[in-house]
Amino acid sequence: MTQVFLSFSKEEYADRLGRVRKAMDRDGVEVIVCTDPSNMAWLTGYDGWSFYTPQAVIVGPTGEPLIWTRAMDAPGALKTCYIGADSVIAYPDHYVMNPPLHAFDHLADMLADRSWATLRIAVEMENYYYSARAHAVFSKALGKELLDCTNLVNWCRAVKSETELLYMRRAGHIVERMHARVFEIFEPGRRKNDIVAEIYHTGITGGELDGVSFGGDYPAIAPMLPTGDEAAAAHLTWNDRPIPAGTGTFFEIAGCHRRYHAPLCRTIWLGDPPKDVAKAEEAAVEGINAGIEVARAGNTAGDVARAFYAALARHGIKKEGRCGYPIGLSYPPDWGERTFSIRLDDETVLKENMTFHFMPAIWMEDWGLEITEPLIIRADAPAEPLANVERKLFVKR
């Protein structure tokens, strides 16, 4: 018999399923097909690197969720999910990367066999893992237009349980250790790839919190650490060149534990930072503190953004775009939950135990500064940081 080590109780999974079905009823949907691996894991516990081929969790009108996956990945579902073997549906390998065949024909047949094909079926249309061809094949095989349930499950995930918060606090502890190690070894002449090797080693080694030791997972995004004028770009990773003196590098990295993330960014300047960078640091820290003060239950995502941008304006700095997003359980290529944003026009009401990455980075023409915080919304107090790393521009001379 396969032994399954679940990250959550079966009662918690049942509660999640109930919330999703309530949202389905609200939206007039009878069957949802979730191809987002984060939603799949949240609903069933499934944890595997199989999202490069078609797979899904299907929630129908009754019963436990179904996992539909490639045959070679079905054993992985049995080893990581709370659901029974009868709820794991495998398709044969000749559907894999073998045009003109497509696995979503198999899924359509499976739904028909269960008399679900005539029901109101919805798919996650705006999703990294659901291709245009998959949608065309699936719609044609079912003979009808499909509804859209993009973010239906994501919104059900917005308020975290106590166990989820425990995992995120552990991830926060891991990212603390990652940044401490970076500051210890970061110096002129070191190769970027050697720094990244230490980031990964520290993150996956894990840590100890409240007397419990735990390991780390691979984060959903690779470490990003552009240097000098490269740091004007938000999403560059690393190279194998030596780090020059007199430059700034921001580190956008995350601790990850049981797929739950705590991203946190800091910037290191090797030498004396220019006056405009020091001015930006002062403004950013003031803005972050102001945003955290209003980031509490009952206020809105827009309130947080307005507090931050007002601080920047007092320092004569103008910045556009969002400055944060929800975080939690994620798989590549993104650790965000893709629901609300911390931006001026987002009036999503914040609730206790929502979690988000307050990410008010400043990118200028020839440098960049990132000082960010992963936060938990509290009922009657400012948001709680998931990690304890000094909120400043770090300088090494």
Can you offer a commentary on this structure?
The mean pLDDT is 97. The chain has a 6-stranded mixed beta sheet with strand order 4-3-2-1-5-6, sandwiched between helices. The chain has a 4-stranded antiparallel beta sheet with strand order 11-12-15-16, with helices on one face. The protein has a 3-stranded mixed beta sheet with strand order 9-10-17. By secondary structure, it is of the alpha/beta class. The protein is built from 10 helices and 17 strands. It is globular, with a radius of gyration of 22 Å. It has helices at 10-27, 37-44, 74-80, 103-113, 132-142, 152-156, 162-185, 192-205, 275-294, 301-314; strands at residues 31-34, 56-59, 66-70, 88-91, 121-123, 147-148, 207-209, 212-214, 248-257, 260-270, 324-326, 355-358, 362-363, 368-369, 373-376, 384-385, 394-396. α4 (103-113) runs parallel beside α5, α7 packs antiparallel against α8 and α9 packs antiparallel against α10 (301-314).
